[in-house]
Batch of 3 targets.
Target 1
Amino acid sequence: MRFVLRMALRETRASWRRLLFFFICIAVGVAAIVTLRSVIQSVRGAFANEARTLISADVLVSTIRDWVPATREMIERRLSEAGVTERTDTLETPTMVRPTDASRLVVRMVELRAVGPEFPLYGTVGLETGTYAHSLLEHQGVLVKPELLTALSVKVGDQITIGKAVFTIRGVITSEPGRRVGDFSLGPGVLIDFADMPATGLLGFGSRLRRVMLIRIPEERVAPLVEQLRRDLKDEFVNVRSFRATDDEIGKDFDRAENYLSLVGLVIVILGGIAVSSVTRVFVLQKMRSIAVLKCVGAGSRQIISVYLLQVLTLGLAGSLLGVVMAIGAVAAIPIALRDSAPLLKDVAYGVTWSAGAQGIGVGVLVSLLFSVVPLLQIRFVKPSLLLRDEAVRTGRDMTRIAAAIAVAAALVALTAWQAASLRVGLVVCAGFCGLAIALQLTGQALVRAIAPLSNSRSFPLRHAVLHLSRPGSQTRVVLLAVGLGAFFIVGVRSLQASLLEEFSIQSNPGAPDMFLMDIQRGQADPLREFLRDPAHGAGAFQLIPVLRARITGISGREIQLDSFEDVRARGSLAREYTVTYRDHLEANERIVAGTFWDGPSAEPEISVEQGIHDRFQINVGDVVRFDMLGRIVSAKVTSIREVDFRDARNGGFMFVFRPGTLEQSPQTFIAPLKGPETIEARARMQHDLVLAFPNVSVIDFREILKTVRDVMSKVTLAISVVGGLVLLSGALILIGAVAMTKFQRVYEAAVFKTLGANTRTIARMLLLEYGVLGLLAGLVGSLGAVGLTWGVSHFALDIPWRLFAGEHVGGVAATGLLVAAIGVLSSLDVLRHKPLATLRAE
Amino acid sequence: MIDLRGVSKTVTSGTEPLTILHPLTLEIPRGQFVAIVGPSGSGKSTLLGLIAGLDSPSAGSVLIDGVDITRLGEDALAKLRGEKIGFVFQFFHLIPSLTAHENVAVPMEIAGVRDAGARARALLEEVGLTERGHHYPSQLSGGEQQRVALARALANDPPIVLADEPTGNLDSTNGRHIMDLLRNIHRTRGATLVLVTHDAGLAAEADARIVLRDGRVVEHAAAQVTR
């Protein structure tokens, strides 16, 4: 044991420089794991403490319909039986606001929340200045998020109009209980007094209002109350949840985020592991004589394998510890990066947690060991007779190595499953990574083979550069894999982003609607038509589409009854509430695939069903579907199945279209897709005038949505590019390591070439060409992988036409080529500097 | 005692079998100094490698102190070498990543000797390299490297020392120095010394001389050799 320890230390002392970069690669991966896990654990801790504040109550009862008096009465009864100590009602709806000063031509969609004096039951509303009190809201006061001040160019003290009522801005919200960070929102949050809600006119029919009851109750009574209410309300469209459910849900979200995100780090560590495996193979080849000497002086194979395993363990541990140090630095920088974000995130006490650190070190050390075991087993075949004459080390089938490789693969799946906290995910990720690695490897090999004819080139440097790529132990494969994988991530994600943006871009179809009006009341339809036809407003083509809310409660002859809320839950999306319309024509994006479309009104209800709904739920022509339309039961016969192109669904992509003649008198609102004015100013003016004339109508501007989509996508792209960048960094480290590892061979060759008459410039050109070609190949591997990725994602996941963005690919390949050439040449400067005689004498 | 019984070695050269050592039976008594001579390619180093268990014979058996080493596994062979055999190569074969002192200490560390460090220093002193212990092989001259190799061969005080042309890669002064050391070792420690050499003068000093040509023993003197 003492021998093993001493030899491991001596070997580490002698070779740590050559192996350094591979273990920095492990460090980068470990740093990613530890940072992600620590940050998420810190945030999770903060959220767990704030669970009640997150929903601002112990129990929350909500509905998107009007309260039915009997239901409400029953809830009240249950609350009083349960001994509820405090409760309050809130109303939430998206709506438009504008500065009351009519000269300012801006409007903005916001998420309005009307609250009573008891709000919030837990936590407090954070204000930029002063403390929150309900009196700030009384008599048409409003508190707004800072984004709204910027968007409307208003300040505290100014007046804004919400619906039909004028409000005075009395403060700026920094945090608001009950609004979760990261929740999807249509606009900045705005807080008004519950009592002022009627004045806005937003309580009318058709508004997308959510009614919420916040309840405070001693903790031990939370679960029984929730259970009781759920039992009582199972047939109603009422949602009941406790802060515990939110806590559990958030806990699960965080667990999932932590486990999945740390897989990113694991992939980098595994990439480092592949490099460790490759370098260990070369290392054993280089150490063969020393191993033979050790065997000659009495060491057994097991002892020698132990020496090198211990060396890998030491370097793996050092790499992992370095990773933890890097993570400490990264985590320390997070509060600075989050200076301007939500207070809850900003105020979290970030730090590297013990469990994250231990996991990171565990993963780093395990991966280093696992990946070095198989190549180290080759030591068993090094014979001491090697010292007497040169002989090849036995290769070929070796059951021990095969068994070890299988055990290592199983251990890697177990490791991934442990990190992802799911065996299925572990298997999928390992299989996916394996598949990707094999695909990239095969591509790399094919490319190396494709350029092989260049080894007959007339150019001496090019000939030798190409020959070097297929030299034994040249590390070409591992560099192609690592750098190629980095390029794959970056080029793939950028191409996908470009593809999606192109898909969303409305500029590709200049005549298409680019604005959307909602919540138009029946009485507003004609005045709105007049408004839009008025050339002064600059609106282009438009149509008013009647919409009604309907819920499927059954399908004739199919024994499907969807009368209760429980059935709805069990049936999934079929029984959700649909928005339906009626019309006598097909839209440009629609095509009949079965049955016939009607050609005029009829008193008998008929519907046309969208193809996806037909496929999924087997609703066929001839079936009768029973709808509940706000209490009115309508049974409609299916007379046609429509294919809808949802990529061009701006005139409405309806699942169910009714034949005219039966719904005209039902309660309904209208939506209006239209082509808005061209210039930003004209669009702002039109929206402003529209909201002035029709305060309850909401306007969605596709151009703004596109801007938001672009914004969100560039953030996502940035995040994935950071991952790609880390992988590329690992690739660069592996490349530097590979150069360092094989440098002695280069130095010797360069000395021979110099002796034979090659000058430094020729050797420099050889190096430049070798690494340039290697980089271009790695870039091509990544780029071809990215073509596969974008095609697969476009075709199977996003269902959009696949496009090739040549610029992204050419740029990616060129940048990778340049990067690898620069790194390769810079880390080989020694080769150029060495004097030939000294090198040859040393050999 | 070293006892070779019908030992031969055949290797594959390309696709053809090539016999580099024809069947040979030989006994080398304890404490004897035996020189093996012959031209290049005559099988001298192969014979030495077979005695050391560095290589396995194609036929026959090799007994060291009555133990048939051809029946031992790799690890048992390594242990036996560590305990009983010291080997000096023509090309030194020091471990480049270890200092001279560490190179000498390694066999003792493998054998679990407690004061390996002190003994390594003593051995280096014995070969006249007290001041060079902390140098790496690349920082030593050929003669110095061979002296370190010699000290390493003596580390576990083996009863058998095998030397494969130990002076073949050295100038005459260094060669003489190494031979003086080897003779001294044989004399003072009573070790069996088997020396492969081209040098007729050196061979003449041995108790017995074996001459090999094309893998066969063509001449022997004093030692008991059976063809």
Target 2
Amino acid sequence: MEPQDLRYHKEHEWIRVEGTKATLGISNFAQDALGDVVFIDLPDVGATLAAEAELGEVESTKATSTIYSPVTGSVVQINQELEDHPELLNQDPYGRGWIAVLELSNPAEVDLLMTAEQYEAFLTSQA
Amino acid sequence: MSSLKRLIIIGAGPGGYVAAIRAAQLGAQVTIVEAQAVGGVCLNWGCIPSKTLLHLVDLGERARHAAAWGLTFEGPIGFDLKRMIARKNEVVQSLVKGISTLFKQWNIQQVTGRGELVTDRQVRVTDAQGGITHLEAEAIIVATGSSWPQLPQFPIDGERVISSKEALDLTEIPRSIIIVGGGVEGCEFACLFSGLGSQVTVVEMMPRLLPTEDDDVMAILTREFKKRKIQLALNTTIHDWQSTTEGIQATLSSGQSVVADTMLISVGRRMNSRGLGLETVGVKTGSREEIVVDEHMETTVPGVYAIGDVTGKSMLAHVASAQGKVAVAHALGTPQSMNYDVIPAGIFTLPEIGRVGVTEQQANERGLQISVGRFRYGGLGKAQAVGEITGQFKIIADKQSQKILGMHIIGPHAADLIHEGALAMQHGLTVTDVADMIHAHPTLSEGLMEAAEDVDGLAIHQARKRT
């Protein structure tokens, strides 16, 4: 079961909206598909990202993959703990494995993302 | 071959000493003149010393990783730089001795001092005490190499401001170091010092590290630098700096200030063509003070040859050696020509880089129609077994003929692995030739086969690409 309070993107990122800010990370499906994460290249604080623009790169024992920002905004905080502990992405993708916090430029974009229920259906359809 | 010929070689680096031995093998009577140390910069203050130290750093880092995989140690793994330097000196001494032994076996006469051309057939050697020896021969090879940086804005004091020469003899690990220049040497030292635990800042004028390497390689190396917490200041120069009791205080062109124990200057090597009597004899030099040579390594004066760094063709030891063999062949009457199309090279960063031929960007700039194949180290059983999964194999081929135009590897043993690509290029082989050759399992060499197969989307251990 995916957490109900999050919104999901088809590239398997999630966001949690609080006011005008959104915390984002990768989904449980994504971390499982990646395998053991060994490094994450985090964005710079202050960077402005368009929806579906590249947010960063994550390197696992299997592949190097791009993480996309599900929404438009500017990076106000990054999870520096991931620099030394990238394994948190695997261990706690919806908690301590959060990646960044964005200040939303266009909060209406959030409504375009999937709910937990829709995302679960999406995963089933992809399986 | 012509009858016995006398040959004088000035400089006993990887160009000069190889030329000396080859000439003696072919029957010449050889005298080699060296002012400093047999083996030159490469052996004494360059390739060999830096690889000896980098290997220990690599070993220490891998051992630390392996601690998580069940390798146990009494205590934490650390680096004792004094002993590492002592070990480096032993390696260098043993190799230098090896060359001197070869000189004796081939009856090569060794003269210590600075050589200078008096005529196109005569050399005057001045030793450290001012003693003079006159030598005469039918041919002379100048192999004087290149010098450490002597830039007016960065005078080397050997303490705070150092060149690679001093960097390889430090006995204390600097807490922090600024490296000026993000080329091959700068990148290797960034890995060495970050591995030893120094906080490293690389200041590079260009927008990227290693400007002549393939973009894929550079992107992976840049990511590895981030993992090492190396600070990169690209598109940046040192605006101003001063040496204080606290260390180096530098202001970068970006406005940022950096304080460090030491500053390593890795830019501005100069060709050693001064004070050799070249003007007297009429040997032409170019705008960078390089000695002008033809494809046989002969200068503008017949019978006078130049090889290695001083010719400004390439700053690679193995190219100097190859040029030395070509110069000797010509001098002894069996002319060969230098071909610079297939020159493999290694960059000993952590991880290592091996390259030969064109990069994808160079191919595009030249308007070539190409196909590209890639394969990651992580897809290899051997890489997983040894826990070295970061890296990539890349092959660039002509789209039509499938002939290999370039190969770029970043990852463990890349500089060794690249030679399969070099041999393939030397003989005009295609990606199919490489893909169809059976590669032993489990090895890292399988990565080349997979990358060759990937040119046609046929790599076996690669995730299926969505179409």
Target 3
Amino acid sequence: MFIARAIPFMLALVLALVHGVFVGVAYAQTTELRFVTWRSEAPEVWNQGIADFERQNPGVKVIREIGPQSSTQLHDLLTQKLKNRDPRLDVFVMDVIWPAEFGSAGWTLPLDRYFSKSEQQGFLDAPIAANRYRGSIFGVPLFIDAGLLYYRKDLLTKYRVAPPRTWTELVDAAKKILTAANDPQLIGYSGQFKQYEGLICNMMEFILGNGGKLWDEVAMVSALEQPAARAAVRFVRDRIIGEVSHRGVLAYEEPESLALFTEGRAIFHRNWPYAWAVANDSERSKVAGRVGRAPLPGFSPAQGAAALGGWQIGVSRYSLQPELAWRFAAFMTGANMQKRIALATGRAPTRRALYDDPEIDKKMPQLKSLLETFKQAAPRPVTPVYAPLSNIMQRYFSSVLALHNTDIDKRASFAGRDMNRVLDLLRDRSTP
Amino acid sequence: MKRSQDAALWFLLPSFCFVALFSLFPIVESLRLSFYRMILTLPWLGQRMVGWENYADLATDPVARDALVTTLLFIGVTIPLELLLGLGIALVLNEAFRGRGLLRAVVLVPWAIPTVVASQMWRFIFNDRYGLVNFMLFGADTSSYLAPLADPYLALAAIMIAEIWKTTPFAALIILAGLQSIADELYEAASVDGATSWQKFRHVTLPLLKPALLLALLFRTVDSLRVFDLVYVMTQGGPADATNVLQFYGYKKTFAEGMIGYGSAIAVTVFLLSLTLALVYLHLLRTSRWKEAGL
């Protein structure tokens, strides 16, 4: 009787043990690869890609850690892990301004061994240059960004205004439309002017468009005090924000500024290429089909400048499986993956060949016309001390834009002095 | 006697080890690092002992000075309001009425919400396109909506409001505990003497509540000197550095810029500031207890 009752129990126990052993074996054979990234706009493409990679590499499980969307906050998360030499971080996405810093700190693996010069030639020059520091390459470009001007085609046509070629034309056009439309909801210009990294991109575009620069990379001194840079900053304060925008933009990052545009409440809008797909998606945008796009204006025609943006994939120096991490980076940045990401999200690929891909051309005929903009996009200066320099500039730009009646000349010279102190750190290089 | 003391020491050992590992060690290590120049992104500079250089730089750093002013302003505005509101709430909750138990629990909700979540919520409330504040002020007239987080003065005020909302319940809780320790006979005696409600409050409640108020003041001051999450989520220190409090500045220096030495000097300064304030309060607390006991 007792035995009869015990049999099912024994059976269950044996089954559990056997199952446990098998699971254990399967577990022991799994290699985990940790990938820190942000939330993609097309998660299904990423899930699919990662599943494909796992299929091609049996026994590998990619663990994704989703970090903050904001570049600044993701930077702080990654640098904490890297600083602590966390072996449970193998591979991660990098903003275009990080490779020099991470490479200099010794946090990323130099990839020259895997990523040959000839292989690099298949990519656009600007993002490759951004991943290079002191002769080594520290990341593989995933997609490229450049600042673009979006505008309401319907409004420009209705009020007979041509797409502006200069910033002054843009302000005049915006004022003309604002007066004629007489819509209290409408503003002239929406960009990213919050105190964060995007502020640097926006302001750099104005400064370069006026023939100025952020700092002189040869003399290694600040150029914010130069007349061209100061005039551009003054123009943004007095004319862009003072005359055609509203003060809300001083708290805007990309999503907020784009939302204003897709709600039909902004005539002109500065953003990266991804905004095109969003603005023309009738589910997410009230202005779908009524959007135009042009290179950013300059202060004289054909002087416009676009900031180079974009993301790369890098491998941690402290990864216990660099070979596998590299294979993953190569897979995610491969032609196949870049094409799938481009088709799903409108993100611009970094591989030259994809600009002649018939399928991409059919889905995104506008992409080819951007190639010239991408080729000429201006990188933010490559330096391991980019983060402190950026914080000084963010403080300067935000102060002169947000505070009333600030003395731009005085603030520029303060910011310049602070920047020079940081740049001087690089001079110590010669003295060991 | 001796034996039981030995046992007590053994019992204390685990918690001492815990505190030593997670509190003492980081403090001492920060102190050590604050005397070095160490920049993570420039490893070839090495780790060089520079003595008081970081502190000298800090003393002359205008951004740090502004951050200190912002922090003190933040404390100076939020804490009196928190204590005042907390006192009001505690007085109400100390009365007997139906549903008091429920209300006591409800009042604690803001304090129980993780700060990051609350900050995100307040960011939405102050949003310039769909924020609740704007809706309450202007209704459907979206063209007059304000952008509080885009204005240097309003942004700081917005963070103060979020902080007051978040931590007033904590002050109320401590004050309520103080109120409950006041014996009813004292009020009965005052009533017999013909004291009005105000006189009872002024001459019975308030003096006996002093220790509780000082305790609330101590906790709140030390805590709000370390304000960080609200700034991190709501403004990232902007606009125009208007919400750049000391802790956030130190965080930026250490984690975003990799300036370990300088960042540590800021952390140590914040630590010393709160230690000093804590000691002053503790001293006040002790003297007020003595007076109470008639010493």
